[in-house]
Write a structure and sequence with these properties.
Shape: flat
CATH topology of one domain: Cytochrome Bc1 Complex, Chain D, domain 2
Strand content: under 5%
Helix content: 25-40%
Number of helices: 7
Largest sheet: 2 strands, antiparallel
Bound molecules: heme C
Strand order of the largest sheet: 1-2
CATH class of one domain: Mainly Alpha
């Protein structure tokens, strides 16, 4: 019993010391104190849906909405346009693209996670087209391992971007980088993810290629 009293009085002492240390700081009446999630207090002051005053050529002034369409041909910051159109020709041309993302464990793992969130329910975990939703579609998604075995990476990327048949476009859910990472994982399911094997030069004039 004595031990318990000792522990309690020790805890009380520690508490007192802690309070006295923290409460003796200089008081600033303007300080809002500790802010939990400061972005909730201080939202970015973007003034959309307001009006700008513009000067006309004849010297008069007009009030126009500040939300205006971007000038034709401009590209939003951080947005990467995609070169190929959603046409049969664009689809064929997309086969010429190469994946800019390196095939390493980290990127394939990220691709796998994205695949689990966006594709498994249709294509199935192993890519056989037997996901819970995929199996209910009038035409189940084809197997990566057999039917789509030879589908090149560019076309995989293109079809994820625009969708194909019953599959919707994923460009608004996944950035280009994410789509390329998913492509790495689709290739793994195709069985086409073996790293390029360097061919060993057999004579002194041959060039070793990657
Ligand atoms: C709503 C179900 C559904 C979802 C979700 C879905 N797919 Fe599909 N996918 C399909 C169907 C159905 C096809 C067959 C389309 C066709 O050829 O008509 C297909 C086809 C494909 C093809 C072959 C395209 C080609 O060029 O022949 C690839 C690659 C593919 N999907 C990858 C993905 C990836 C990666 C995801 C996730 C980011 C995904 N799909 C999400 C249903 C889906």
């Amino acid at each position: 019993m004595k031990k318990v009293t000792k522990i309690i009085s020790l805890m009380a002492l520690v508490g007192c010391v802690a309070i006295s240390v923290t409460s003796c700081q200089k008081h600033d009446s303007n300080s809002p104190g500790v802010e939990f999630m400061p972005d909730m207090y201080r939202s970015p002051s973007l003034e959309s849906n307001l009006f700008d005053v513009v000067k006309n050529a004849d010297g008069t002034f007009d009030t126009v909405p500040s939300n205006r369409k971007p000038v034709a041909g401009t590209i939003a910051r951080g947005y990467m346009p995609y070169a190929f159109a959603n046409t049969a020709e664009g689809y064929e041309l997309s086969a010429t693209m190469r994946n800019p993302i390196e095939r390493n464990d980290k990127n394939v793992k990220e691709g796998e996670q994205l695949y689990g969130k966006f594709c498994t329910h249709c294509h199935g975990a192993t890519g056989e087209g037997d996901g819970l939703v995929g199996g209910k579609l009038p035409g189940a998604p084809p197997s990566y391992k057999t039917v789509l075995k030879t589908l090149p990476e560019g076309k995989i990327f293109h079809s994820i971007t625009y969708g194909k048949g019953l599959m919707g476009a994923h460009a608004s859910q996944l950035s280009q980088e994410e789509r390329w990472k998913v492509t790495l994982y689709v290739q793994k399911l195709q069985g086409n993810d073996a790293p390029a094997v360097a061919t060993v030069a057999t004579d002194s004039t041959a060039v070793t290629t990657k």
